[in-house]
Amino acid sequence: MEPEEINIEGIIITGWSRYDHLAGLCEIWPVAEPSMVLNTQIALIGAHKALEGLSKEVVLS
After folding, report:
1. What is the DSSP letter of 2?
2. How far apart are CA 49 and CA 56, in angstroms?
3. How many angstroms separate the CA atoms of 55 and 59, rounded?
């Protein structure tokens, strides 16, 4: 009996809080939120389209 081949695919998105466990979450959230949005968009649709859409949103807000 031959062992089955296991294919694992995925992506892991982490935040900066893992580097500074003593930082208060209320202090890092304003900086972390735009980064989280950009990284999620890049993971879902690719860098070129994510950056194009984000630049329009940043200019409007």
Report:
1. P
2. 11
3. 6
